[in-house]
Here is the input.
Amino acid sequence: MLMPHPAVLRTLVDEYEALSATGTAEARAQERDLAYTLCVSTGTRDVNDALRTARRWLEAASAADAAARPQATVVRPQATLARPQTGKARPQTDDGPRVYA
Here is the structure.
């Protein structure tokens, strides 16, 4: 069975729950449409089963995402101090390649 993307599933669940709280005639029509879409998306026939399945899948996807995410590493900035010069400075000439021994 194909599974919907977790972001799409999260949107369907959130919209269904928001419409369930309103109770207007237009909201009930949209709620029925979302219930049907949730049932088809989760392979269930009852919206309550669809919501339970969707939440279970979302929890599993969240756990899998957290497990796959690399651990945070602390990156400390390096000091940009000038390196101390060792020895005497050599005079520069433009008469050819410079060879330092």
The two ends are 70 Å apart (CA to CA).
